[in-house]
Amino acid sequence: MIYIVRKEHFNAAHKLFNPSWSKEKNEKEFGVCSNKNWHGHNYEIEVTLKGKLDPESGMLINLKILSKILKNEIIDKVDHMNLNMDVPFLKDVITSTENVTIKFWEILDEKIKSLNIDCKLHKIRLYETPRNFVEYYGEK
Amino acid sequence: MIYIVRKEHFNAAHKLFNPSWSKEKNEKEFGVCSNKNWHGHNYEIEVTLKGKLDPESGMLINLKILSKILKNEIIDKVDHMNLNMDVPFLKDVITSTENVTIKFWEILDEKIKSLNIDCKLHKIRLYETPRNFVEYYGEK
Amino acid sequence: MIYIVRKEHFNAAHKLFNPSWSKEKNEKEFGVCSNKNWHGHNYEIEVTLKGKLDPESGMLINLKILSKILKNEIIDKVDHMNLNMDVPFLKDVITSTENVTIKFWEILDEKIKSLNIDCKLHKIRLYETPRNFVEYYGEK
Amino acid sequence: MIYIVRKEHFNAAHKLFNPSWSKEKNEKEFGVCSNKNWHGHNYEIEVTLKGKLDPESGMLINLKILSKILKNEIIDKVDHMNLNMDVPFLKDVITSTENVTIKFWEILDEKIKSLNIDCKLHKIRLYETPRNFVEYYGEK
Amino acid sequence: MIYIVRKEHFNAAHKLFNPSWSKEKNEKEFGVCSNKNWHGHNYEIEVTLKGKLDPESGMLINLKILSKILKNEIIDKVDHMNLNMDVPFLKDVITSTENVTIKFWEILDEKIKSLNIDCKLHKIRLYETPRNFVEYYGEK
Amino acid sequence: MIYIVRKEHFNAAHKLFNPSWSKEKNEKEFGVCSNKNWHGHNYEIEVTLKGKLDPESGMLINLKILSKILKNEIIDKVDHMNLNMDVPFLKDVITSTENVTIKFWEILDEKIKSLNIDCKLHKIRLYETPRNFVEYYGEK
């Protein structure tokens, strides 16, 4: 049982905003993160897969495959985008690092299960900044 | 169940010294780390909280709150200080990275429990240098 | 003659857009950076001052002073903002890293000259990402 | 129960190659990583030990001891080497990050058990690049 | 006059070896870097261009163009290669960081001059490791 | 003409204190950096040499030589030390990053001149923290 990690990055705009709250409550709860004209980040995403080695290749999964999945399923959809406005799977979601991470999990977990290989998604770590980040293991 | 991490830093002096040991034994066990006139580090602390998302805010906890707790309870008490001489909660403690981490846990765990929110302290990682660090989960 | 550097960071949204060009030309020239709904970055700014040591303090300038100038003159005006919409001194400017750096220079150079101390602004380095950055020395 | 981590680095050449496969299959599976004349990396290895503090020293283990074990058992045998050709314990192994990590585990786990101290190997993380890495906990 | 920098990376094998020297002299001068079976690095290259802003685009040069030049002229020729064996422009060159940097300069300087734009190559910095690097400004 | 850089690190305690000033003036000028019981840092030093390549070796200087000079002349004298109390060449000096850098220059410049090789000290960069650093070129 071994774990393999691939790290990718993307640049995006967002703001924290709950439409069912007043302008004042949004500002009180989210502070500068609710600036109405957006702000943005250089996000870093680390995806960990867990499984058994293929003895023939000596690999859990070729990282080129994982990197390509990340590109197609995640990076191409969020890089140089506005997370609140441009990303269908984040529509009607508060784009907190927590929520974005969980949405990424749902997409990647389904995709990796569909590969029918002997490994599964174990963890996603999403850095909003080098000092603020979230980890998710798919736990309910 | 999601995990959120905040990283902060502080600069401090310390030395490793067991007063019940001879000067020679301190030098033998602790080497250059026992230099009597102190040395110091740029410490980095990563604090992980674990809990359930608040669906209204999309957050586990506002990182501003966690950052402020870290500032008040830890950083203001150790930054630009001598860990052996200036920090009441480290009095009579050998200021190894292990012991300092455990003391930080005790303080932060109590503080976070007192907030009565749906998350708890999960892990503290303390870097003494980028190549030496300690992790603690509150396990006895 | 010695050089001292302070590094600060801010998070902002922006897009590259020349209003005198067609939508098509903007897309052709600026690519994904012209996404109409913005994207964003964790910017890092390094400011270098050059001058003679004060023999009494052993310092060129107290970095707390430089850090406070950066906070008041730059960071508070751009952090968690939209560079195109929220920043008066970037109004009508294409918010390329080059232009933003030059505007920062104009502000900081004037401010540091007004201090009447024996040092001057030497260089600004602005990171848009860890792999893309600009350097400016005030050269015309 | 506390965890202590030491990070070391080494520079090595390698290639991914399965001698039971055709040249074409090796190229198809391993891509540029199978370049017959080798390529190389600045590897980083993080080794985590887990155990109980020694109350007298305040330490789990003196990191100088762990660092010396890493030097003698691992770094001296792989640094500035060709992992496929120069390292006896990697002979007949596909030098994927996964396999190299598992071999490092076998060596370090045996060595640390032989010390008869109150701590054991918990985890090895091996970075091939800052964006590709493997984690192993000795799980079968 | 402004400076813009793009950083790229590649992984390669090499060894330091002067064929006109004896095996012993190579070992004495180059130490472990002359290991006959090669070793390798994750190289990082920073390329600085210098010139005047294009007022229409607000840019010195679109970094996509610089990134593409680096990919075509340098990265595709050295990534996952053996610098001594696989790279025509390094044939018969001792692959020290110094020599590799100068060869990169010759290629990039000619290429950038051929673009007939208002900027020129100013500096190349090549990291062999995060602690060993070379800078070259084309000075004879 | 080429530039080669070697980066080393050391951990030390210090405080900023001018003995000809009152306790109050020291606190006013130096703030928390004047804490009487010291604080400390993980310093990083980057030393740049400039000169002509030796065509036989393809190197400006073997970095092992530079690294050994740094170890003998600087690191062994300051690592795990108190800069104010334990370092003869910093006696009676305010241990600001500026002053420490200039003292390092004097030592290294003399040492490198004494080697009678075709390169000279060009620059020292000293990081007190990743966000505060000083550069010195030996300019009077």
Overall description:
The structure is a homohexamer of 140-residue chains. Chain A is of the alpha+beta class. Chain A has one domain: Tetrahydropterin Synthase, Chain A (2-Layer Sandwich). Chain A is built from 3 helices and 5 strands; from the N terminus they run E-H-E-H-E-H-E-E. Chain A has a 5-stranded mixed beta sheet with strand order 3-1-2-4-5. In chain A, a hairpin with a 2-residue loop joins strand 4 and strand 5. Chain A is elongated. In chain A, 46% of the residues are buried. The mean pLDDT of chain A is 97. Chain E binds chain F through residues 16, 18, 20-21, 29-31, 93-99, 101-102, 130-137, 139-140, and chain F through 1-8, 48, 53, 56-60, 62-64.
Helix content of chain A: 25-40%
Task: Identify the CATH architecture of chain A.
Answer: 2-Layer Sandwich
CATH topology label of chain A = Tetrahydropterin Synthase, Chain A
The protein's oligomeric status is homohexamer
Q: How many E-type strands of chain A? A: 5
Q: How do the SSEs of chain A run, as a string of H and E?
A: EHEHEHEE
- Taken as a percent bin, the fraction of beta residues of chain A is 25-35%
| Coarse morphology of chain A | elongated
Radius of gyration of chain A: 17 Å
> What's the number of helices of chain A?
3
